Amino acid sequence: MKRSMYAGRVRKEHIGQEITLKGWVARRRDLGGLIFIDLRDREGIMQLVINPEKVSAEVMATAESLRSEFVIEVTGQVAAREQANDKLATGAVELNVTALTVLNTAKTTPFEIKNGIEANDDTRLRYRYLDLRRPEMLENLKLRAKVTHSIRNYLDELEFIDVETPFLSKSTPEGARDYLVPSRVNKGHFYALPQSPQITKQLLMNAGFDRYYQIVKCFRDEDLRGDRQPEFTQVDLETSFLTEQEIQDITEGLIVRVMKETKGIEVTLPFPRMKYDDAMALYGSDKPDTRFEMLLQDLTDLVKGVDFKVFSEAPAVKAIVVKGAADNYSRKDIDKMTEVAKQYGAKGLAWVKIVDGELNGPVAKFLTAIQGDLTAALGLEDKDLILFVADTLDVANVTLGALRGRIAKELGLIDNDKFNFLWVVDWPMFEWSEEEGRYMSAHHPFTLPQADTVHELEGELANVRAIAYDIVLNGYELGGGSLRINQKELQERMFKALGFSAEEANDQFGFLLEAMDYGFPPHGGLAIGLDRFVMLLAGEENIREVIAFPKNNKATDPMTQAPSTVALKQLEELNLQVEQDETNETN
User: Fold this and answer.
1) What's the CA gap between 155 and 519, in Å, rounded?
2) Which residues pair with 30 in a beta bridge?
3) In this predicted model, what pLDDT tens digit does every residue of 76-115 receive, in sequence order?
4) pTM (2 decimals)?
5) H or E element, residue 509
6) How large is the greatest C-alpha to C-alpha distance in the chain, in angstroms?
């Protein structure tokens, strides 16, 4: 029979109606002859009652055969429950079943289909189609759908044009490692899956589209973490003739719309703005979490005269104060934090505690002489824990920034109900890569430099600043953008600064440089990470929880076993050979 409605949408107003429901058996209970079934579908749970006095022996026998995750169809009359369940949306009603059909049976599942399971990630991903039946996962994906719907409506109202760009594109340097796709037709040649539609959306501005958007898949072959996947989705925007501020205003409006329509939260405008240098100096991160204090303090000048060379001769000495936490962290705990500090390049981690008004700890004797100045500078009180890093300024900032976030989570200092948005602006154009031994683009090589620093493209690259802006939410980079270069001469200077010869630049980006000869308008844009945004709205800590079929931390899919080997014939068609190592395993 035709389904009347979703099981999770049956309410008091349906009492007395005969309806048909379809779904999965979430639970079966036999109580004194009566059989109770919790029927689950995408909208929730509905209680079914099968009374042997009101159904045929055949229906009763079928009911007794039911097991978890059987797919069933039931017809019956909606009635009021004698004991309402306030925890369920359908808790005031139940269905007195008169007809029951099993549409499919099910084996025992590898984990329970319920919220809060303890199955490991690979098991959940191996049986992702079961994992997605769990209510919390279903709600996350429904939230994602609401977010994308809200975004599309907002951008459509602002006359943005939704344009699809190619997935098979040209491999270009600068950025993460590409995923390559061999061409069968053009042997020895490869497509690259796009890390973003950056160049194509700029070309759309040259074509006169003026306002473009796309909710698009992007691909980056990089080391994975909780907020990264090899394939991810971003909300991609590009506009012509708008200023940096105008692009940010549009983005803020988009955020306001999504927060209101999906979470019922009113967001205050405008978002705070913070310079990149201030973010690094105060928070040790270019994506600062402003939901709690514990700011980084610069003590370089204050400790120059102490009899402790680690401090007095260091390029920079910075500290964070963990208020009232002296008893929370033992020496062993701080030793563990020292190992974390070393992961960020620090040589070590110095510390003292304030105990009964006195400095206590391994380096206390070196700081006693300046205790008064230290207390005044840091606002110290009894039971405070002070952590110091003496190193280069960059290492000190990044190390203390990482420890700041770790400690805040451990001590419960973060209000998880807060959504703190801010813009990080005034970025450096270049960043030094130790691996490459050269300067690389902090964002990408098409970012427009600030006019008063352009001359440094042929000088000190560290002094070039970009007209770039990142939007940050609760310590995560939610998105980033910039104004773009639209003049060929400046773009060529940028490529040269990055180490490209004229021939290399033309080989990699000749089509873009040629386009700049044909009236390329001033333009700029932004991309927001959709997965991260939904993850934060859902209160999750890993974007796998808001992606239907993600990869694990080894970039593999335990369900389909991708990536996998392929038939020799396919390799031959692509003119490829796969080497084998000494253990006879393919590489």
Assistant:
1) 26
2) 35
3) 999 999 999 999 999 999 999 999 999 999 999 999 999 9
4) 0.93
5) helix 502-515
6) 93
Using the CB atoms, write b or e for 474-488: b if 16+ within 10 Å: bbbbbbbbbbbbbee
Distance, in Å, from the CA atom of 114 to the CA atom of 130, rounded to the nearest integer, reads 10
Q: What is the pLDDT of residues 382-431, one digit of tens each?
A: 999 999 999 999 999 999 999 999 999 999 999 999 999 999 999 999 99
Q: Is 533 helix (H, G, I), strand (E, B) or coil?
A: helix
Closest CA to 174 of 189, 203, 147, 195: 195
Q: Could you give the CA distance from residue 27 to residue 392 in angstroms, rounded to a whole number? A: 60
Strands 71-80 and 93-104: antiparallel
Judge contact between 342 and 389, C-beta under 8 A.
Answer: no
pLDDT band of residue 233 (cuts 50, 70, 90) is very high
Residue 540 in 3-state DSSP? coil
CA separation, residue 295 to residues 272, 320, 561 (Å)? 17, 6, 45
Burial of residue 150, with CB atoms counted within 10 A of its CB: 0-12 exposed, 13-18 middle, 19 or more buried:
middle
Q: Does the pLDDT value for residue 582 go beyond 80?
A: no
What SS3 state is found at 366?
helix
Token duo for residue 54:
């009101």
The CA distances from residue 272 to 240, 242, 248, 252, 547, in Å, are 25, 20, 11, 11, 30
Q: At what angle do helices 276-283 and 393-411 cross, to 10 degrees?
A: 60
